[in-house]
Design goal:
Layout lengths: L4 H12 L9 H7 L4 E5 L4 E3 L8 E6 L2 E6 L5 E7 L4 E2 L1 H6 L6 E4 L3 E6 L1 H10 L1 H52 L3 H16 L1 E10 L4 E8 L2 E8 L3 H9 L3 E3 L11 H6 L6 E7 L5 E10 L6 H64 L3 H28 L8 E4 H18 L3 E6 L4 E4 L1 H18 L7 E9 L2 E7 L29 H11 L3 E7 L3 E9 L9
Parallel strand pairs: 16-18
Antiparallel strand pairs: 1-8, 2-7, 3-6, 3-8, 4-5, 4-7, 9-10, 9-14, 10-11, 12-13, 13-14, 15-17, 18-19, 19-21, 20-21
Helix pairs in contact: 1-2, 5-6, 5-9, 6-9, 9-10, 11-12, 12-13
């Protein structure tokens, strides 16, 4: 179809601004207008592909074009982007070889194409066009060089980052595999996850399938608390239940996010990466909840790092748990045998002493002597109960004899027992008993709990200038709270999450390390909770929360 004068003028105006024809005389450019053909491309359309054998020079009248090349890895790598008034495709017209790259329209694009023969005629007859081609080739080569250099630098940076992460992962794995204390191991895993993803902070939850919960120990102020969430609740609970990976740039936009923790702590959660920790069989054993990457957002590399860490961490946790169980079983067996033997050996002497004290109490006409004989018998019973409690604990025997009692009366009994020790150590007793009424519990076991906590407090205040033990009670709704506050040295932060562990002792060479473990077991048998608050140099508070009433077939 022959071009009209109007079409020729439009083509001329488009050619006039193209870099191929800068400084080309107007009359020559008018003559060339008849030799171009127009072609339109939609965004994403290929103008030509690598390996094509067409040999037309392409001038960009409107739009943008990407020049790219597919690497041996199958990646389409962009070499440069060309805009209006630039031209491309000259290499193939010069060397006669197939297309060496892909050309794709990025926007709605208009291309003016010039055939092989006409292009070569221009090169032979017009030195200005030759110079313009050389100038454009020079600019394009410089631009491509810059692009390639940037890509090499980016690739090297990425490779170095991956090497650093891999080195960090290997070093961390060695530390994980050498840690046999479970609490220290969990802290180390979380620290590795935070450092490896360059996050601000995080939480590591473990899954408790027996209770259908996830749990973690966290530091709240000066107190270490154990937080538990039902499977499926919150973002971490959802990940533990489903195995999905949750990434959000704004946690507050996720309806599963619990903002209450932020409100209490004053911390602002922004981005969050939450993903499961799985063992070698693919079973979910925990959840990483990593918060606020610094300074940018979480990336795919962070997810891959946590996935790799998960494999090593799960093995380390399994090893630590197995080692811990083996050690505990051996210790329980040894102490259990000792306690059983002690109970057997104590039986005859205790019976003999009971006969003597009963006889003394019945034959003595002195009120003080009778009271003293009663205290001796009470202490003998307490001693036997303590050994029996250790024996039952080591055998995992659990039983309670629940009764309706007056909590004030029980505390009076305990104070009467420990009174001499308090006086001996010059410790002032401060009672704040706001509630002294009825509650349902096992009095003998609860006496064991109170005695244990009070004697720990006495030992903690040995070197204190101010020695005061405060026992307080109050009732809230259907619960009673009993607290013991001392003015001792306090418990160091790094060991607070261990003091309820079996056989763990701190500063006591003559202890079995079972006292507070038994205390916690008894409290849990009562469906209660024991919390710890401590500040080094200022003392410790043990708070026990118990239900006032229990529906129990053993209720008397």
């Amino acid at each position: 179809m022959k071009k009209t004068s109007s079409n020729t003028e439009k083509l001329y105006s488009k050619l006039r601004t193209n870099r191929l024809f800068i400084t080309v005389p107007t009359n020559q450019l008018h003559e060339l207008s008849y030799m171009f053909r127009e072609q339109l491309y939609a965004p994403g359309d290929f103008i030509f592909k690598e390996g094509d054998t067409d040999n037309a020079l392409c001038l960009i009248a409107e739009g943008m074009v990407s020049i790219s090349k597919v690497t041996s890895f199958g990646e389409d790598t962009e070499l440069t982007v060309l805009e209006k008034d630039e031209f491309f495709g000259e290499f193939e017209l010069i060397d006669g070889l197939p297309r060496s790259a892909n050309a794709k329209a990025l926007t709605k694009t208009e291309i003016l194409k010039l055939d092989y023969d006409t292009f070569h005629m221009l090169l032979e007859e017009n030195h200005t066009v030759v110079l313009n081609v050389l100038k454009q080739l020079s600019k394009r080569l410089r631009r491509t060089n810059e692009t390639v250099v940037k890509q090499v630098e980016a690739t090297r940076k990425t490779a170095q980052e991956r090497i650093n992460i891999l080195t960090f992962l290997v070093e961390s794995t060695q530390k994980l595999n050498s840690a046999l204390d479970l609490d220290e191991l969990l802290d180390l895993i979380l620290e590795t996850a935070i450092l490896g993803t360059n996050a601000d902070r995080g939480t590591l939850y473990l899954v408790d399938y027996e209770k259908d919960e996830i749990w973690s120990k966290v530091l709240k102020g000066e107190a270490i608390s154990e937080i538990r969430l039902p499977l499926g609740k919150g973002i971490a609970g959802y990940v533990a239940a489903t195995g999905d990976v949750i990434y959000t740039e704004d946690a507050y936009k996720d309806p599963r996010f619990n903002s209450e923790i932020d409100r209490i702590s004053g911390y602002k959660t922004r981005s969050m990466l939450c993903m499961p920790m799985k063992d070698k069989n693919g079973k979910i054993i925990g959840v990483f909840q990593i918060i606020n990457k610094l300074p940018e957002l979480f990336r795919t590399e962070d997810e891959k790092f946590l996935e790799a860490l998960s494999a090593h961490a799960s093995i380390a946790i399994e090893n630590a748990q197995t080692t811990r169980e083996m050690v505990l079983q051996e210790q329980f067996s040894t102490v259990g045998k000792l306690a059983g033997s002690l109970l057997h050996d104590m039986k005859n002497p205790m019976n003999t002493l009971k006969i003597y004290t009963d006889s003394f109490k019945n034959s003595s006409g002195s009120k003080d002597a009778t009271e003293l004989a009663g205290k001796i018998g009470s202490q003998m019973n307490r001693l036997a109960a303590m050994v029996q409690e250790i024996f039952d604990y080591c055998r995992s025997v659990s039983s309670t004899n629940m009764k309706n009692i007056q909590i004030g009366t029980l505390i009076d009994t305990v104070i009467s027992d420990v009174g001499p020790d308090l006086e001996k150590n010059r410790i002032d007793l401060n009672l704040q008993l706001d509630y002294t009424g009825a509650c349902v519990l096992d009095p003998e076991k609860m006496e064991c709990v109170f005695h244990n906590i009070i004697h720990n407090a006495i030992e903690a205040m040995e070197s204190s200038d101010t020695k005061q033990l405060t026992i307080a009670t109050e009732s809230t709704n259907d619960n009673i709270q009993i607290s013991f506050r001392d003015t001792g040295a306090g418990i160091p932060v790094q060991i607070r999450n261990k003091i309820f562990n079996p056989f763990y002792t701190f500063g006591r060479k003559d202890s079995t390390g079972l006292g507070l473990s038994i205390v916690k077991k008894i409290i849990e048998e009562h469906n209660g909770i024991i919390d710890l608050e401590s500040k080094e140099g200022s003392g410790t508070i043990f708070s026990i929360t118990l239900p006032l009433r229990l529906r129990s077939p053993f209720l008397q």
